[in-house]
Each structure stands twice: as C-alpha cells, then as structure tokens.
Specification:
This protein is of the alpha/beta class and about 220 residues long. Helices cover about 20% and strands about 30% of the residues. The structure holds zinc ion (2 copies).
Length: about 220
C-alpha cells in the first residue's frame, strides 16, 4: 500500500503548498483520494508533477465539510467524475445532492465505522460540532490512521480506529489536539496540515515523528 501526500500546508520544492490536505492511497485494488485541499488547480498541478493520473482514481473520500478539504472537489470531478464518493452522513443535504449529480459513481453518507474498499475503513462520523471521518489503512502487518483535521480530537479518533486493530501510525492534520498519549505506541507520527503543536509532538517522540508535506510518499 502506498500513501502520497498531494496537498498540504508544506510542500517539497517544485510543488504548490496551500492551506488544506489531500492524499492518495494506492492499495493495489483501489486508488483513493482522501480530501482535495482548497484549490483544485493546485491539487491537479501537484498531481501532474507527481505523475499521478487523476483518472486513475476510483474513490473519493471527504473527511469533513471544511473548505480546505473540499474546495478542490469540483475541479477534480471536472477531470474525473468516474468515482464513488464517501462523505460524513451529516454533510449538508444540498451539498450531497449537488455532488451526487456530478459523479458517475455512487455517493455514500457514512455514519458508522465500516469498510470503504478492500483494506480501507472509515472510523465513521465522529465529533459533536464539526463531524469528521478518518480512515484506517490495513497493510500487511499494521494499521494506520489518515486524518483530515482531527477536529473530534485524537483520543476519539484513535479509539474508533482501534476497533480495526492496533494502530502503528498516523498521517494528516492533527489540529490542536493535546492528547499526546495516544501516540505512545505508534511508530510513525506524520503530523501535517493544521497540527498546532508539531514541535511538542516532535520533542516527545523524536524517533517516531515524521515530517510530511506535499510530495511525501511512503510504502506502508
Ligand atoms: Zn477542518
Ligand atoms: Zn483542515
């Protein structure tokens, strides 16, 4: 399974950076785009530079309804509408209706934990105010969490994700969560996007902290 960060507040040289998050998950069975950043043109531009064909993507998952995660959706769908789309079930009804007319696949409103594709699971919709889903990736021996902004808090996300097995690592935005204890058994802490306390996490877990940015890629 391969994970590539396509959009982040930080980017490697030659790629565009912008407030938001998006990553590609290639499982060998499916190509899943998780979130789209806010600027779809920057998203597509980064994809091109990373030699990712937007048309190779069969599944789009949106973590939550904030602009820095869904702003690029229309631009992406104009390039490739042959996707199934998974959004938290509390997404606005109008947005769901609009998005459903733009895709050739099906739109699924996710509430409960469950499988999205082979080896890829959603935590289901978490949180009170900003509802958000995170993904759990199951590689050969390990499970990894992918988060958008982590608004429901790291504890809630990790607890929900743990129902799929032990968690070995996490990638994505961790917002202002100070529930640092959840990282203690993780081998990889890829804190990106909106993570407020990157320095604290890096100091607490210097061996396991992973710097992520648009263009970062890893085989899991
Ligand atoms: Zn957010
Ligand atoms: Zn965000």
């Amino acid at each position: 399974m391969k994970l590539t960060i396509v959009y982040d507040n930080e980017a490697k040289e030659g790629l565009q950076k912008g407030w938001g998050f998006s990553c590609l998950i290639e499982t060998g069975y499916n190509n899943i785009l998780f979130d789209t950043g806010w600027d779809g043109h920057a998203l597509l531009d980064n994809m091109e530079k990373l030699s990712i064909d937007p048309k190779s993507i069969d599944t789009l998952v949106l973590s939550h309804q904030h602009w820095d995660h869904i702003g690029g959706v229309t631009t992406f769908l104009n390039r490739n509408a042959d996707v199934d789309l998974y959004v938290p079930s509390s997404f606005s009804a109008n947005l769901k209706k609009e998005m459903a007319t733009r895709i050739n696949g099906k739109l699924y409103g996710m509430k409960d934990p469950g499988e999205i594709c082979r080896n890829v699971y959603t935590t289901g919709e978490l949180g009170d105010q900003t509802k958000e889903q995170a993904l759990v990736l199951r590689s050969e021996n390990d499970n990894y969490i992918v988060t958008g902004c982590a608004h429901p808090g790291m504890l809630a996300i990790t607890e929900a994700a743990s129902s799929f097995g032990n968690i070995s690592g996490i990638f994505g935005g961790l917002h202002d969560s100070q529930e640092y204890g959840v990282f203690k058994d993780m081998q990889m802490i890829g804190a990106g996007h909106c993570t407020s306390h990157k320095d604290v996490i890096r100091k607490m877990y210097p061996d396991n902290f992973v710097k992520i940015f648009a263009g970062y890629t890893i085989e899991l």
